[in-house]
Every structure is written in C-alpha cells, then in structure tokens.
Amino acid sequence: MNSKIKEWIKRYLPAEIVATFTAILISTIVYLLTKNPIITALAGTWGENLGYYGFLSIREVVQSKKQHKLDNKRYGVLSFFKNIRNLVLEFGFSEILDSFLIRPFAMYTFLLLVGNPQLGIFLGKISADIIFYIPTIIAYELRKKHLK
C-alpha cells in the first residue's frame, strides 16, 4: 500500500501544485474585479481545472511520445486520442461531480466562512480534493489494470 501512495503522490502532486497556483491566481483576479463570492468560486474551480488538466494532458502526451519512441513506434492521432481517452476514463466521473457541484460549493462556503479570498479558495480546494480523489484513484487503478 505504501508504494501505491507514493505512486499516487508522484502522479497527482505536481498537477495539484500547478492547479493550486492557477486556482488562487484566477480567483483572486476575479474577486478583485467583481467582489462576488459566487463568481470567485466558479473562477477558482475553472482556474484549477485549467492548471490541473493542462499539466496532466501535456505530461501524458510527452510520456506517451517517449514510450512510442522507445518502442520504435510512431506517435500519431490515434495515440493522442488514446491519451485523451485514458484521461477521460480516469477523471470523467469525478470531474463532472467535482466541477459542477462539490468544488464550487466548497470554495464558496470557505470563502464566506474565512472572509479571505485566497485562504477560502485554498481551503475549499483541499476539502473538494479529498472527495475528488476517491473515485479518481479507483478509476486510475482500473485503467492501469485493463488499458494500455
């Protein structure tokens, strides 16, 4: 189990660092422009998604291209769509629930509770992450087992 946790940290932590930065940056800008906690929470959610999935998508394609080169295979459109398919299978269910319900609600709630936009977005992000990673890790493990 310890090796699994290390694998998950290696897989998800770099994307989380980027996502935290983009969530706080974009939500701060939106808060300064609007002073609206609902819009700020939505901006934090979508800013986080931009950083998180942008990082993961680029890393997935780069790793796949390296593997194709090692296997002496050509990386083409089909390979790219397999990368996207894998990400959708790993994150799809979690992301729908997360982006449209859990994360905006958590960010909005913590923003109101603490009164500080950056701290509220950060605390909301952390609480939403706990819920997000349960089905995500299950999907990741199933993907590894059944898909190449």
Describe the structure.
The protein has 148 residues and is an all-alpha fold. The chain has one domain (2-146). It is 91% helix and 0% strand. It is built from four helices and no strands. The protein has helices spanning 2-34, 37-70, 77-114, 117-146. The longest helix is centred in the middle third of the chain and has 38 residues, at 77-114. The protein is elongated. The two termini are 22 Å apart.
* Whole-number tally of structural domains: 1
Which range best describes the helical content: under 10%, 10-25%, 25-40%, 40-55%, 55-70% or over 70%? over 70%
Shape: elongated
Number of DSSP helical runs = 4
Structural class: mainly alpha
Quote the distance from N terminus to C terminus.
22 Å
Strand content: under 5%
* Major beta sheet summary: none
Instruction: Give the total of beta strands.
Output: 0
Following the backbone from N to C, one meets helices and strands in this order, namely HHHH
The average pLDDT value, as a whole number, equals 95
State Rg: 17 Å
- Uncertain stretches: none
